[in-house]
Design brief:
The chain is an alpha/beta fold. Helices cover 36% and strands 21% of the residues.
Length: 475
């Protein structure tokens, strides 16, 4: 049987290669054992899924195993945004959740995410426990047919929409957005976010224009439903066609978000995180800790000093961010990939709520996205970012790891290196407060090289130096 290893945010695999019904059932059995060990099985489990190929069938297989272990299952009645699934855990008082999704991965993949009773990611040490409880053979997995489990009341299909919608309306006053007369373009990336902004903003002068809002498991016009270039390019081409004031781009399961300005130009996620931090501190006048991964913007550190709030840095992934947010009662938490979580919600990424907050920022300031960036840069100065993802010969992984670990560059892109941080991967901090990060992905067989600097003309050179440090060549 396939060895199953939980990465940054659960287990992901290639459909029909290692992501099979047998292996999904093994994962479900391991999670059932985990719930029993932690006295959570009696609380039940929420099971949801996205719009990938066969996702609803893999979710049904998961429900059959949990039910056979005597665990009550709330099975979503349709494809559901990840934040709505996570909130349903709290709303139902469940012991956790299983979400069948590969989020932003290529169309060949699917995934098995698990969540704790708070609706947040499970910490790394606990994920290892779940791994250890996964049976080695399919014969050790319990299973009860879905129809029988439903007849017995062990599996209950439910609609998570009303409770989640009520939460969003508590966190954001949508009436001013609805009446602002905005033209909003939403790229649903063929995923679970389809229909949500039209639902939330209906009835006023604001108009929502959706693209890529049907189910299409091949994700045409993009290599994957990840809200970064070039995947966003086709959607952003509609901004000028419809005269949009802003573009909101949700990934496949709607827990991440990207944005485009009124000119159809992409706003990278580091700048978005900076805008959200500024929005809460300056516009909403809220205070509280900020939690960020080592791979995201130092603009937040600058905002933290200006507004006298603590900023905590973690490893990459919500399995690190969520526990830290709970520990410090964070105002906001997030990562470089466009996942942001907010106080008053579950400690989980929410790409729909983040979109509403940015729209509210536009209402409160009377400014369009490009002008909002000007506001941010007046506070912290301009920052520039890029990331390169590179495949590599897996036999070279130890060699590459050693190359990076032993590197002591004096300069990167001409900028002096003043510190090295090893929270997750190797981050080389530069004299301007910028940084280069080299790390292996926790979900895919690639290495990521990222940089943020205050010097626009240095970005490419810093990335090239990072690739050289790793002993790799850019394609």
């Amino acid at each position: 049987m396939t060895d199953i290893v939980f990465g940054t945010d659960g287990w992901r695999g290639q459909i029909a290669e290692d992501y099979t019904f047998a292996n999904v059932r093994r994962c479900a059995q391991g999670f059932a054992h985990y719930l029993r060990q932690n006295d959570l099985a009696n609380k039940g489990v929420v099971v949801g899924y996205d719009k990938r190929f066969g996702a609803e069938l893999f979710a049904a297989a998961t429900a059959e195993v949990l039910a056979a272990n005597g665990i009550h299952v709330w099975l979503t009645a349709g494809a559901t945004p990840t934040p709505a699934i996570s909130f349903s855990v709290v709303d139902r008082g469940a012991g956790g959740a299983v979400n069948i999704t590969a989020s932003h991965n290529p169309p060949t993949d699917c995934g098995f995410k698990v969540r704790d009773p708070r609706g947040g990611a499970i910490p790394p040490d606990e994920l290892k426990v779940i791994e250890s409880l996964i049976p080695n053979a399919d014969g050790d997995v319990k299973r009860r047919r879905l129809d029988d489990a439903q007849s017995d009341g062990l599996v209950e299909k439910f609609n998570p929409v009303p409770a989640y919608e009520a939460l969003l309306n508590r966190l954001v006053d949508t009436d001013p957005i609805r009446d602002a007369g905005f033209q909003v373009l939403v790229d649903c990336m063929w995923g679970n976010g389809a229909g949500w902004f039209p639902r939330l903003l209906a009835g006023g002068t604001t108009q929502v224009h959706e693209v890529h809002n049907e189910r299409h498991p091949l994700f045409p016009h993009m290599t994957r439903p990840e809200p970064i270039p070039p995947n966003v390019d086709h959607g952003l081409s509609f901004v000028t066609k419809v005269g949009a004031d802003v573009a909101i781009i949700n990934d496949g399961d709607a827990d991440r978000v990207g944005f485009g300005d009124e000119n159809g130009q992409f706003i990278d996620q580091l700048r978005v995180f900076g805008l959200l931090g500024y929005y809460f501190l300056e516009i909403r006048n809220e205070r509280g800790p900020i939690v960020k991964t080592v791979s995201t913007t130092k603009m937040l550190n600058k905002l933290g000093k200006i507004y006298d709030v603590p900023v905590y840095e973690t490893g990459v992934g919500f399995k690190y961010i969520a526990p830290k947010m709970v520990e410090v009662d964070a105002m906001i938490g997030g990562e470089e990939s466009g996942g942001y979580a907010f106080r008053g919600h579950v400690p989980e990424r929410d790409g729909i709520l983040a979109g509403l907050y940015l729209l509210d920022m536009m209402v409160q300031t009377g400014k369009k996205p490009s002008q909002l960036l000007d506001l941010l840069f007046e506070k912290v100065g301009p920052h520039y970012y890029d990331r390169v993802d590179t495949t590599f010969d897996q036999n070279r992984k130890d060699e590459i790891r050693e190359n990076v670990a032993s590197a002591r560059p004096e300069r990167l892109g001409g900028l002096k290196v003043v510190d090295i941080v090893t929270i997750d991967g190797h981050q080389f901090v530069m004299e301007d407060g910028g940084w280069l990060l080299v790390r292996f992905s926790g979900t895919e067989p690639i290495i990521r090289v990222y940089t943020e600097t205050t010097h626009e003309d240095k970005v490419h050179a810093v990335i090239e130096d990072g690739l050289r440090i790793a002993g790799l060549q850019q394609d």
